[in-house]
Amino acid sequence: MLKRSTRRQFLAAAGCAVAAPTIIPRHVLAAADQPGANDRIGLGFIGVGRRGNQLIGALPKTQEWQIVAAADLDRTRREEAAAKRKCRAHADYREMLDAGDVDAVMIATPDHWHVAPALEACQAGKDIYLEKPLSHTIREGRVLVDAVRKFGRVLQTGSQRRCMKGHRLGCEMVRNGLVGKIETVLIMNYPSPWECGLPGQPVREGLDWDKWCGPTEPVPYHDDIFIQRSNPGWISFRPWSGGEMTGTGAHGFDQIQWALDMDHTGPVEIWCEKDDFKAPVYTEPENRTRGDRLCSEGYRVRMRYANGIEIRLEPGESAAGASFVGPGGKIRIGNNTVDSNPPELVTEAAKDLKVRLPEINDHIQNWFDCIKNRQRPICDVEIGHRSAILCHLGNIARWAGRRLKWDPEKEIFPDDTEANEFLDRPRRKGFELPEV
Q1: C-alpha torsion 273→279→285→289, nearest 10
Q2: How far apart are CA 294 and CA 272, in angstroms?
Q3: Domain ranges of the chain
Q4: Residue 307 DSSP class
Q5: What angle do CA 98, 85, 63 make, to 5 degrees?
Q6: Where does 15-164 have alpha helices with state H?
Q7: Comparing C-alpha atoms, which of 239, 211, 248, 252 is closest to residue 430?
Q8: Do 56 and 84 meet the contact criterion of CB atoms below 8 Å apart?
Q9: Which of 53, 232, 389, 416 is the least buried, fewest Cβ under 10 Å from its Cβ?
Q10: Quick one: what percent of the chain has pLDDT higher than 70?
């Protein structure tokens, strides 16, 4: 599976692997004022569940795009999406990638299915909007970065808070030194993923459950695995997600990286306050309170950058942003909000900041613009990868149960074979990552 010689042979013959930036979507060459149907960005959706439909609803109200295809392993979902959007339905996303009318894809699958279709989209010459977290493991994230560069694709990571006013202002305040040199960053103590022991249920009609399990070993079907945020849903289970550490944490850690101007690097040390973390096993449907409480009862993660700034995961802190503490006070970024102590710092920030961040107010529109001009978007693949690394390191700190050194350039734990086992995961036969 995932090794399609026909497409690879075509790309090689066309010289795309060497001169990928010359693959320009057909609409880029058209007039921009009133594009016709053939001049628009042809969008294909891979995954049209909860988040996929939210992305469809968030598409800019312009004439520059049209949805031409929807792929999902659930027949009901893909057929409903196709009927509503008047587009084709595909059971296999790879058929979509072979279609000539698809210029770009938006991927909103469960986390364990993020990177494989993105890699195949690179090979097929499609641009990509990939939901956060960018990857399910650190190593597969680096493979994707390399593929995007090799094939000259435009990839926007779905960290849309970089296009929200409150987040931008808060990060600008930090970068302008309104509280002095940052010493400590406080962020929510996100739960790690839990283990799944749910009993089996009949597979819902029209769902290819074996393919849904993908690279993970198949388990019996259960609604509270398949549905993202149910009781508790796949986003809380280790085989398919990094838990809220990668779910909501992808937003919070991304804000830290942006505010501290660390998009090119990461921490050099990680640890957890307690060394006996053991994820709870869910054997029947229940809410997420038990696992949340376990993490908040002492399994607080710490990270340190080379410049001495320490990230502290603490209960009660911001989930979508973070608090930045310096000798002059605190700047707290919430959910598109920013406040400070002393309070007048926010007022001062509105007057005159020397360091300004890109003022982009629509995350998907930014991706569309970059598809046309072939520039890198505000949350380019490398940025998404670096932010996802912090999420993965947060989980690894608990799983390893000891203090670890991290090399953000080589993306390894130096001289630590045991810790490096956490950098990737086994993939069952037939579901290996595609060769790029």
Answers
A1: -10
A2: 13
A3: 5-162, 165-356+382-416
A4: T
A5: 85
A6: 50-57, 75-85, 93-97, 115-123, 138-151
A7: 211
A8: no
A9: 416
A10: 91
- Residue 118, both tokens: 């993105």
Q: pLDDT digits over 262-306, tens only?
A: 999 999 999 999 999 998 899 999 877 776 777 767 899 999 999
Amino acid at 51: R
Domain 165-356+382-416 is found in CATH 3.40.50.1240: no
Only one residue has tokens 């300004």, namely 356
Q: Two tokens at 361?
A: 């107010």
Pairing relationship of beta strands 310-314 and 65-71 according to DSSP bridges: unpaired
For 83-132, the pLDDT digits (tens) are 999 999 999 999 999 999 999 999 999 999 999 999 999 999 999 999 99
Nearest-CA neighbor of 196 among 223, 167, 162?
Answer: 223
Q: Are 395 and 244 in contact (CB under 8 A)?
A: no
- Residue 265 pairs in a beta bridge with none
E strand or H helix at 223, and its extent? helix 223-226
Which superfamily is assigned to 5-162 in CATH?
NAD(P)-binding Rossmann-like Domain (3.40.50.720)
Single-letter residue type at 92: D
